[in-house]
Design goal:
The protein is an alpha/beta fold. The chain has helices at 20-28, 42-47, 63-68, 82-94, 106-112; strands spanning 17-18, 34-38, 49-50, 54-55, 74-78, 100-103, 117-118. Helix 4 links the parallel strand 5 and strand 6 (100-103).
Length: 124
């Protein structure tokens, strides 16, 4: 009986900053133990966000993260700007989350390469 070996991606060391393609690769391979945090305001999140991202506006960090995130998970965070992303990541790291990666370029970089986004439909 012959067995075929399907190659799996080699997990690179976790980096404090990631590009859209890095995150997309992990999502495509179904790698477990990662969380995507959208640190923008709720209105921006509702208009469009990375599929699977959870809304945690900057004003709720780090409190909401402490209540709902697992400290051992890899966290990818993005905001409206790289500066906002860095601020959110700093808040998370200071709260004890050490595996936090800033998604450089945020949602704009994600959309620029054609990756899918989700939106929240308004309820009438």
């Amino acid at each position: 009986m012959l067995f075929s070996i399907i190659p799996t991606p080699q997990t690179k060391s976790f980096k404090p900053q990631s590009k859209a393609g890095d995150l997309k690769t992990r999502l495509d391979w179904g790698e477990p133990a990662l969380t995507i945090v959208d640190a923008r305001d709720r209105e921006s999140y509702n208009m469009g966000h990375i599929q699977g991202a959870i809304p945690m506006p900057m004003s709720t960090l780090p409190g909401r993260a402490m209540e709902s995130l697992e400290p051992e998970r890899d966290i990818y965070v993005y905001g409206d700007t790289d500066e906002e992303t860095a601020e959110a990541a700093t808040k998370l790291r200071e709260a004890g989350f050490q595996r936090v990666s800033e998604l450089t370029g945020g949602l704009a970089a994600w959309k620029a390469v054609g990756y899918p986004v989700s939106a929240v439909s308004a309820v009438a």
